[in-house]
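User: Fold both of these, please.

Assistant: Here is the first one.
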Amino acid sequence: MSTTTPLNEVLSTEARLNIVFAGTPDFSASVLESILANGHSVSAVYCQPDRRVGRGKKLAFGPVKSLAVEKNIPVEQPLRFDQEMDNNGITATQKLASYAPDLLIVVAYGLILPQQVLTIAKFGCVNIHASLLPRWRGAAPIQRAIECGDKKTGITIMQMDKGLDTGNMLSVHYCDITSKETGATLHDRLAQVGATAINDFLKRLSKQSGSPLFPGEQQDNQQACYAHKLSKKEAEIDWRDSAAAIERKIRAFNSWPVCFTYVGKYRLRLWQSEILDGHSKKDPKADAIQPGRLVNFDKQGIQVECGDGKTLLLTQIQADGSRSMSAAELLNSKSQWFVNLAKLGA
């Protein structure tokens, strides 16, 4: 087993890093494309195995594999590193070592890397993580930041260790979260920030003597929080929550898994909403709050009372079997769903 060279060791000015890249989804593909566009050498790409998609359940390449195939870069797709062998009896770990990488760059790969993998590359492994570590370690940092009302997020370039997003921070790049931010829009913006951040990092690593990026800054573990993986089950709206919490959740879960609620027996997916001023009643103390109560519906949207007595206006909606549309469009064909309906939710 090879050992990792100390991170403050200097690469010569003329040296070109031999990079192995590990990632799977769109976010990773955007970063890989930028690395290649900046002239860096990528000798191999690692990504998750192909998945079956669509009604026909046909095997399909992920975004990173598609790009790698287009660029004629070798692709490796091990299920795991520690035990899996190919037809020649070579383990996935041995195969990775055969590429003799200077650096392994990991971006939303989706596979846990064992300790022996982290030490193969001369300069170890760096991860492009979509949060301001130590806040939002884990699988869904983009969505959890919006859901919890964070005002800022960003990209952290981190040296990987055996922990989950616990390694030293090598560089940090900030990004504001706007009041209209969705999981989809923030994902795309952070992919661009991540591409810029890693190319700046690689430029310094390959050309700068005694790079100030290394050995990096230790994370304050007491400030850490965990971004749990998203699930379809948690996307169902609980109208007992505050209007602000529900509005943030709708934005965070756009475009996956997409929040939903029920109108009688019909499911509605919720893409956009806004909080109306004031409470749903002229005197909020006069009657008990009724979470999920249908306050009104018209071409402006569907008004629903939330757990704090405020009203949320649902403006962009999708019925099962249909496309996403404005509330006005939905009500043109489905207004009968709401007549004599007391409340939304299961």
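And the second sequence with its predicted structure:
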Amino acid sequence: MTIPLMALALLSVIGGWVGIPELFMQEAHALEHFLGPVFSSSDKLKESHHLSHSTEWVMVGTVVLLTLIVIIYAWRKFSRYQLIMADDTGFGKVLARKWYVDELYDAIIVRPVNAFARFLDSAIEKSGIDWIVNGVGKSVQYTSRQIRLLQSGLVGNYILLMVVSIVIFFLIEFFLRK
């Protein structure tokens, strides 16, 4: 969090130089010169208002003085601050428990989602998906055990099966041809 704050502080210092008062630099108000072409025709119609340097000094001094007063006040108030944990009651308890947002989120979203997930795990996963996957595995094992019996290692049996298969193929083609 420190690095983003440092970047913002640097950019605010750079941005402060855009509208620097004439008290510090003559004709240095960059925004006025940047927008000059836009307002060139209206500059003829408006009255020119210029502050004296003494008025600018008073305004700058007032802002600096008020800023220093606030810094000193905050420093004195919070430099010795210690967090005292006491049992909160009433509205203080509600604030200490962060408006019970976490408990509400847990009751409305987390618990129902977890209950639904447990239901899906027991009813759908274990009873349905596991049954299908295990059934496919068992059917593959059973089929492979049965097909294994066809493999005897005798070449004559293989030729017989090949001839029978060819005859069945020709019969199917002959009778089912349209």
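The mean pLDDT is 87.
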